[in-house]
């Protein structure tokens, strides 16, 4: 099956839109295939401000209606406690809210941007999507991350080369209770690195300490700019350390 066939069979659908590469291309493909599509963005403590900005920009460029839903994810004790299956509880909460809102708008099919490169094994979040019967056209049609980036570039989508991004909750160690203050610190730190021109990175929280993970391409640069980074990070964290293990391409969660 290809996307043309998928949208021929599903001519009306809602898309859970994160503002990222995959769901952006899914929206574009749906619109291109004549699907009656609406985007739904969940604004929560786990999503940085730039994702919402990108979601608004892309939906405007594609002339696709966007609904922004505010969800207090930390209201869930299972999510705030940050167990190993936190993502299951979070996705379950978020997607149930999207489904309810979308149904009220007349959309009874919900799609997400999971692609064929995403490993479904032992991913609690994907188990939640399967339970709620959320469809993943990119995965069902065998489209990989690299293919989606190439197609997005050809389509002129500004999201084509966005780094992969996992929600802010992934910066907090499993078993450590998640709170707003820690999430805000991490977002501030990552915003600084992004504004400084770094591309693939994570700022992990370990107690009161920040651990920076950076791609191999930026390792020398981050060392040369350590004084400026410490100036920004010191008010936020007790210590700042650099993970010397580098990764090529997109960082994982």
Spell out the key features of this protein:
43% helix, 3-stranded mixed β-sheet, Rossmann fold, Alpha-Beta Plaits, single chain, 11 helices, 7 strands, 253 residues, alpha/beta, 2 domains, globular
Notes on the structure:
Helix 2 (21-32) runs parallel beside helix 3 (49-62), helix 2 packs across helix 8 (145-155) and helix 5 (86-104) packs parallel to helix 6. This protein has two domains: 3-161, 3-Layer(aba) Sandwich (Rossmann fold), CATH 3.40.50; 179-242, 2-Layer Sandwich (Alpha-Beta Plaits), CATH 3.30.70. It has eleven helices and seven strands. The strands form two sheets. The protein has a four-stranded parallel β-sheet with strand order 3-2-1-4, sandwiched between helices. Helix 3 (49-62) links the parallel strand 2 (36-43) and strand 3 (66-70). It has 253 residues and is of the alpha/beta class. It has helices spanning 3-9, 21-32, 49-62, 77-80, 86-104, 124-131, 137-140, 145-155, 180-195, 219-224, 226-233; strands at residues 12-16, 36-43, 66-70, 110-111, 201-206, 209-214, 239-242.
Distance between the termini: 30 Å
Number of strands: 7
Taken together, the total number of domains comes to 2
Helical content (DSSP H or I, runs of 4+):
40-55%
CATH superfamily of the largest domain: HUPs
Whole-number mean pLDDT: 94
The total of helices stands at 11
Q: Categorize the overall geometry.
A: globular
Q: Over all CA atoms, what is the radius of gyration?
A: 19 Å
What class do helices, strands and sheet pairing give? alpha/beta
Strand content: 5-15%
What is the CATH-assigned architecture of the largest domain?
Answer: 3-Layer(aba) Sandwich
For the largest beta-sheet, the strand count, sense and barrel status come to: 4 strands, parallel
The topology string of helices and strands comes to HEHEHEHHEHHHHEEHHE
């Amino acid at each position: 099956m290809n996307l043309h066939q998928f949208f021929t069979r599903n001519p009306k659908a809602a898309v859970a839109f994160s503002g990222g590469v995959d769901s952006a291309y899914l929206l574009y493909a749906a619109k291109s295939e004549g699907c009656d599509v609406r985007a739904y963005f969940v604004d929560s403590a786990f999503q940085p401000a730039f994702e919402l900005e990108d979601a608004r920009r892309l939906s405007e460029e594609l002339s696709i209606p966007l609904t922004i839903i505010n969800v207090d994810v930390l209201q869930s004790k299972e999510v705030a406690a940050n167990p190993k299956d936190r993502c299951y509880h979070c996705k379950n909460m978020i997607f149930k809210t999207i489904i309810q809102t979308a149904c009220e708008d007349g959309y009874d099919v919900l799609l997400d941007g999971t692609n064929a490169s995403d490993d479904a094994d032992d991913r609690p979040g994907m188990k939640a999507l399967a339970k709620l019967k959320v469809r993943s056209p990119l995965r069902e049609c065998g489209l990989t991350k690299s293919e989606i980036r190439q197609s997005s570039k050809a389509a002129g989508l500004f999201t084509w080369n966005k780094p992969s991004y996992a929600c802010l909750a992934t910066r907090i160690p499993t078993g450590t209770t998640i709170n707003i203050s820690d999430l805000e610190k991490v977002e501030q730190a990552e915003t600084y690195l992004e504004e400084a021109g770094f591309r693939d990175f994570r700022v992990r929280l370990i107690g009161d300490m920040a651990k920076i993970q950076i791609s191999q391409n930026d390792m020398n640069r981050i060392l040369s700019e350590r004084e400026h980074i410490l100036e920004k990070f010191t008010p936020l964290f007790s210590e700042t350390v650099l993970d010397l293990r580098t990764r090529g391409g997109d960082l994982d969660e």
